[in-house]
Amino acid sequence: MIGRITSRLQDFFATKNDLLILTTSGSGGMEAAVVNTLSPGDKVLAVSIGSFGDRFAEIAKIYGADVQKLSFEWGTAADPDEIRKALSADSFKAVLVTHNETSTGITNDLAAIAKAVHEFDPSTRSGQGVLLIVDAVSSMGSMPVETDAWGLDVVVSGSQKGWMVPPGLAMVAMSQKAWEASAQATMPRFYFDLARAKDFLKRGQTPWTPAVSLFYGMDMALETLARDGKEAVFERHRQFGQQTRDGVKAMGLRLFADERYASNTVTAVRTPDGVEANQLRRLVQQDFNVVLAEGQGKLAGNVFRIGHLGYCSEKDIDDTLLALRETFAKLGHPVPIG
Amino acid sequence: MIGRITSRLQDFFATKNDLLILTTSGSGGMEAAVVNTLSPGDKVLAVSIGSFGDRFAEIAKIYGADVQKLSFEWGTAADPDEIRKALSADSFKAVLVTHNETSTGITNDLAAIAKAVHEFDPSTRSGQGVLLIVDAVSSMGSMPVETDAWGLDVVVSGSQKGWMVPPGLAMVAMSQKAWEASAQATMPRFYFDLARAKDFLKRGQTPWTPAVSLFYGMDMALETLARDGKEAVFERHRQFGQQTRDGVKAMGLRLFADERYASNTVTAVRTPDGVEANQLRRLVQQDFNVVLAEGQGKLAGNVFRIGHLGYCSEKDIDDTLLALRETFAKLGHPVPIG
Q1: Which of chain A's residues have a Cβ under 8 Å away from the Cβ of B26?
Q2: Which residues contact A221 (CB under 8 A, 6 or more apart)?
Q3: Partners of A173 in the beta sheet?
Q4: How far apart, in whole angstroms, are the C-alpha atoms of residue B235 and residue B312?
Q5: Among all residues of chain B, which has the CA nearest to that of A165?
Q6: E-strand spans in A182-280?
Q7: Which residue, A244, B1, B118, B217, is most buried by CB atoms nearer than 10 A?
Q8: A191 vs B27, B209, B211: nearest CB
Q9: How far apart are the first and last CA of chain A?
Q10: Does B127 have pLDDT greater than 50?
């Protein structure tokens, strides 16, 4: 079963690289990506456009990397030219980047970022280039990520996003360059040791007891996704994203994200003056059994988020928009039909 | 729900200490116990009676502890006097010990070991004593562990053992002394940071996305266990252990474990000359749908193991013994009725 799951995941990751499945949540997968490829003191450029970008930087820092943060205003995407500039100013071992930033509802242009990073990849001279380490927790399986074609060295996802499975599994794809880095990397690792996971996978096993029930879930979900075909799955998410944004704007609400980079898996919406986002969320859940996510970090109270990935339908989104409209009216802020 | 689960777990752990639930398997819980309380260079006495004791030592070593191993022959229990001797010969920051060693089917006399450790506890003088860090992954919830009364500083368990829930959650109890050590401990930690978990628990949350489906399972299982009462649960496991050992011996088979310390959750059995343990296991599974565990490490091929914990009944054990008898006959090694 683990072989079948792995191979179907590799299809969605668009990779021939090794892919390991860990019993942990997405943040544990991010930690695995860092500690398996880096050593204390390594210079790391951490690109951040929100709280998950901050988290990636924090992990690298805690394990002793020399982290330079390149932060962009929340609600905007990372600018590949700024990444180019930072990379030319210093010599970095790795770049950490979030593909889809759940906290703000932005999808970075990962292909363009990868292109910028690889311009500075000295691998053509020395055989050991800048590692591109990607948090694709909330994008993989819902939108195209071309691991091999874009040259992504480490790519992380998590079971509870597009895969439609409860939380508890993280997947990490490792390129040949990542394995070479791993052989030199001295950050300590035991539970998250990917070389050990690779060794056990040869026998269809995991080094530690796996979350068996979630593997069964992944097997079933991937069968469904494979039947639909990945292009159909990606198209479905494009439609979910568009439908949500169109509905929200028709209600006269403002998107938090720069719409050119708006995510197709999550939409962050600003609440109008006089409406407290968490009160709105409570009422929507109480009256309609629809759970909206809260604004993270500095956005708490001013933003709510609509998830539209995985096991989701056009009707789910319609129902959510209707629930919002009714609740705005109840709060004394009537809005047009979304 | 997390509050209710935590409080029912504290009852089984017999502790008023903080208890944190992590999305990881038992080995991740063991790593959390080490990295939250120790610093590189700390002298650690790692008591090992099998492969899980070896694993605990390995974790501490990988994270830079100065590990002295005190190993006992597989199939025997740790001798508290030997621990006393080792502790008097040097100054240790912590002792790592396995309560129930799954690989050999031995339960250490943890009360006696704790007594030996605390004789060398300088806390009565300096306020900071030897930390006693316990792997109770496969005992907690099935046999008595008196966390507070025995003075256990860090105690780890895992959802898939006596708790009857699929794998994927580890629980870690931390004493006040363990928290004080934690404040000084410099081993790096992010995903397994227990102080962060404690902070989020105050709000009924976890720092990272939890394995939600397994939390629902724990909630249901603990309701059942609380209804039975922990004394009844422990007595049931005493009977399972006795029934299994009596049956195995009546078939003329030899227990691997020193019977004075034989575990009530798992029984390791030596195969007689001429019977390959893994062939036996395959046939038992194929013909009777009964899964026996393989011998771990150096025991592979000569030992099989019967698990009898959690969701288990007298009839399950009878059926297993019958399946074994039929399979021994099929292999040309008839044995008496067990």
Answers
A1: 208-209
A2: A163, A164, A165
A3: A19, A155
A4: 13
A5: B213
A6: 254-255, 266-270
A7: A244
A8: B27
A9: 44
A10: no
Q: Are B139 and B146 in contact (CB under 8 A)?
A: no
Domains and CATH numbers, chain B: 2-227 (3.40.640.10), 230-330 (3.90.1150.10)
The pair of structure tokens assigned to A331 is 């709060």
Please list, in sequence order, all residues whose beta carbon lies within 8 angstroms of the beta carbon of residue B323, skipping any fewer than 6 positions away. B284, B287, B288, B290
- For residue B210, the chain A residues in CB contact (below 8 A) are 25, 167
pLDDT at A300: 87
φ, ψ of residue A82 to 5 degrees: the values are -65, -35
pTM over 0.90: yes
Contact B211 A158 (CB under 8 A): no
Residue B183, C-beta contacts closer than 8 angstroms, at least 6 positions apart: none
Residue B249 is predicted with a pLDDT of 96
- pLDDT for residue A260 is more than 60: yes
Contact call for A211 and B27, based on CB within 8 A: no
* Cβ contacts of A212 on chain B, cutoff 8 Å: 160, 166-167
Q: Do the Cβ atoms of A64 and B187 come within 8 Å?
A: no
Return the C-alpha torsion angle B205, B207, B212, B214, nearest 10.
-100
In angstroms, the separation between the Cα of residue B332 and the nearest Cα of chain A is: 30
Position B175, amino acid: S
**Is residue A82 pLDDT above 60, yes or no?**
yes
Least CB–CB distance from B190: residue in A62, A158, A210: A62
Structure tokens at B216: 């629902």
Predicted local confidence at residue B299, as pLDDT: 87
pLDDT digits (tens, 9 = 90+) for B255-279: 999 999 999 999 999 999 999 999 9
Q: What is the pLDDT of residues B58-83, one digit of tens each?
A: 999 999 999 999 999 999 999 999 99
Closest-approach residue (CA) in chain B for A207: B27
Question: B211: which chain A residues are within 8 Å (Cβ-Cβ)?
Answer: 25, 166-168, 211, 214
Of B150, B154, B115, B148, nearest to B132 by C-alpha is B154
Question: A126 or A195: which carries more pLDDT confidence?
Answer: A195
- Joined together, the tokens standing for residue B259 give 């019977």
Distance from C-alpha of A287 to C-alpha of B182, rounded to nearest angstrom: 44
CA distance B338 to chain A (A): 31
Q: What is the biggest distance separating any 2 CA atoms in chain A, rounded to whole angstroms?
A: 65
Residue A87: which pLDDT band, with cuts at 50, 70 and 90? very high
DSSP, collapsed to helix, strand or coil, labels residue B130 as coil
